[in-house]
Amino acid sequence: MVLTACAAPAGAPAxxxxxxxxxxxxxxxxxxxxxxxxxxxxxxxxxxxxFCRDKTVTVIVNTAGEKGPISGPFYEVRDEFExxxxxxxxxxxxxxxxxxxxxxxxxxTGTGQYDISVAGAWWLGDLVGGDYILPLDDYYNDTSGKYxxxxxxxxxxxxxxxxxxxxxxYMVANDHDGQVMYYRRDLLEDPQHQAAFKEQYGYDLKVxxxxxxxxxVAEYFNGKDLNGDGTPDNGLTMHLKVGGQGMFHFxxxxxxxxxxxxxxxxxxxDPETMEPLMDSxxxxxxxxxxxxxxxxxxxxxxxxxxxxxxxxxxRGQAALTFTWGDLGALAQQEGSQVKxxxxxxxxxxxxxxxDITSGQWKQVEGVNKVGNTTGGSWAGVISKFSDxxxxxxxxxxxxxxxxxxxxxxxxxxxxxxxxxxxxxLPPYGTNTIDGYVAAGWDxxxxxxxxxxxxxxxxxxxxxxxxxxxxxxxYWTALDVHLSEAATGxxxxxxxxxxxxxxxxxxxDRLGRDLQREIYVKSxxxx
Length: 526
What we know:
Elements: E1 6-7, E2 26-27, E3 56-62, H1 72-85, E4 88-94, H2 96-108, E5 116-119, H3 124-129, H4 137-140, H5 157-162, E6 164-165, E7 168-169, E8 179-184, H6 185-188, H7 191-201, H8 211-221, E9 234-236, H9 246-258, H10 281-293, H11 306-314, E10 318-324, H12 326-330, E11 342-345, E12 350-355, E13 360-368, E14 379-382, H13 389-399, H14 402-411, H15 433-438, H16 443-457, H17 471-486, H18 492-510, H19 512-522
Helix pairs in contact: 1-13, 9-10, 9-17, 17-18
Pfam families: SBP_bac_1 (PF01547)
Keywords: Signal, Transport
Protein name: Extracellular solute-binding protein
């Protein structure tokens, strides 16, 4: 059967999109909503302990319903929150493309209609830059016992950094997005394939460690029957339709061509001038390499969005792909042809990178791997204009409680991906396989999946996440020109030059000096 991922409304942004206008998010389901519930951790309050009595906390979140991703857990926790504080919880769902504009209108007018927004991490450039949301350090550090406790140190360094801006805590941990490589474990462990691969390439078939090895494995399996239906399948699957989130995948893929030991932060702009860096030799080689890989996938993927590429892997029709954590959860669903066969590993790396700071290619010892936090990493922020900020923080801290967070990470349907030590199995974390098995996971798939995310988020080098005003507009320009290169309308050099031109125009319109100031702050280069 065809497994179709459930996606939020999609569509390319308008000419000058706000920070929240994206192409949509796609999520997976392992267990159905209601089948595996997080424990109650807050006890009902009495008397003066009901410090939020007669107050209402209003949350704005992307439309997904009572049993949908990101929004669903708020409905689950509502009764517990209301009994523990005396407050009322109002959940306002809005279409994805309307969330940020509605929030920004509320903030710029000082209305205070929404106490909490479940925001994308890239929004912080706008929200902190505009002084619209509260730093949460005082709430987090409160020792009175008033608030549920969660441990920011339990969050791995990569996703933990997204919770902070300018050295202050602004988001409460929730979802932890990042991209890893997925591979067919059964194919790589097959003795016949191992022998044939070694004869053809001169080395052992293994999980690709470098992008060259990724290419070799994709080339080897391309055209072979990978699911036993008698028809040729593909070495890899990607999605390259404009508006289909392909630019996110280019970011993760291109990182080790540009980021390295001597250049850990410069990928997007020169922090002195805000001149775009996107046409560097490293970016160009990355795009040329990605375009070269297209030959090992189905022709149809040129017009695919994210869910269609996932379906191709889930039907057993591709040996490799790289994407978000949702695919690992989708592989466990009834109807998946790859449950018990799906491995995961950090994104492959390179043996050299182009050091923008010195203007030269540099060799590395071993493999240059770069972790990433690519994606939304949806988490709560509190409006500066909230009249119940302490109640709002209680709610977010309650949902960040480790015993709840573990269940969220198991399930899949709630859209919360792992990123905490308490999500991982030993020796990397404190969790056990039992929770994943209870949620329907194959034990081998779960171990490989969680280990991959631990390694990704623990990388010494992390892809620099862009968090400035207009972020999604910059990303959309990259998306458009990436598609032009993929379809042969432009060379990689031409596509990246067009990207640079668009970036400059966006920066000039938004104000180069202000953009530079916020960019430098976002990178911690002040």
